[in-house]
Amino acid sequence: MGYKRRGFARLHRGFTLIELLLVMSIISILAGIVIVAINPSRQFASARNAQRRSDVKTILESIHQHAIDQGGILYSGIDQNWKMIGTETTGCSDTCGLIAEGGGGPASVTLSPDADTFLYEGSQGTNYGSNVQLWTDPWQLGNARRSLIHFDVSSIPSTASISLAELNLLEADTQGTTRTIAIHRKTASFTENGATWSNAASGYNGAATDTVSVSWSGTFTWNTWSVQSDVQDFVDGTSPNFGWLLKDTAEGTSQFRWQFHSRDAASSANRPTLDITYTDAAGSTAASCLDLSSILPGTYVSSLPADPRYGSGARTQYAVRKDSQGHLLVRACRAELGEEIAVER
Hints:
- The protein is an alpha+beta fold.
- It has two domains: 52-98 and 283-345, no CATH class; 107-280, Jelly Rolls, CATH 2.60.120.
- 19% of the residues lie in helices and 25% in strands.
- The protein has helices spanning 17-37, 40-69, 197-200, 228-236, and strands spanning 83-84, 107-111, 115-120, 133-136, 145-150, 160-174, 179-185, 210-214, 222-226, 244-248, 258-261, 273-280, 318-322, 328-332, 342-344.
- The strands form three sheets. Strands 2, 4, 6, 9, 11 and 12 form a six-stranded antiparallel sheet that branches. It has a five-stranded antiparallel sheet with strand order 3-5-10-7-8, with no helix packed on it. The chain has a four-stranded antiparallel sheet with strand order 1-13-14-15, with helices on one face.
- The protein is flat, with a radius of gyration of 31 Å.
């Protein structure tokens, strides 16, 4: 009996539409992950920022060492205005990263006080610098209390235009009576651990910078005094910064005290703050670059660093200044990825 070979048809089955879509989706997701993971432009920018961080440190240390060798005196061209380092005499004005990108918006800082205390007329030689509260008390019969507070604003460029400056104090205790409390610019210096009624209760501007009506709402709340004009004068040097004095506007009446948390408060969240918003009116750096090519290269650094992408010897895109306390600051003008690169000493 013979057998015929039976042929079997070969099946050719294709992908369904759903399977194709699923595979394409998976490929797209994986491709996105890979692109993010190995994004070359971001990696390059990150590497350049690393170089910038190294450069600003190198510049800071070389200028500092030069000052040491000059008896502690900084190079004469370094002042409180930002200056781009380079050999060009024109075209060096730049925001240098101090104004927000994409709109020239203002910068904002929140400062903590470096000194505060209260003064008691009933014990005129006593200092209360370590007290956790600031007092304003209009008590009669020579028992009034006033408070002093000071903030260091030297980190703000002297060319800055101050658009907002607000002193914030959190209520700590009261007898519940509505009072008007004034803030006055001090015209004489004080020290936190040395101020007493006898040596610090006077020496302030007679005209109040601002007044606030403080009233009991059932809970302790924050109160805010506007000190914009004073901070502007402090920053541009029109008036020396001796801080402020707070007092009741009607001293010599009954005991209607208000107390606020001081910088010695147990919780940092309760301590005074000074909120400042400003724009650097000078565009940050001066029109003429600061030429350090004759004092640093060869002795303190092999060559002056320049920004790895945008800089040159003519305009390095690194800027330098000193603050009112003599601290040296160096920053990168062209940091990428939204990073701020600056050092201080």
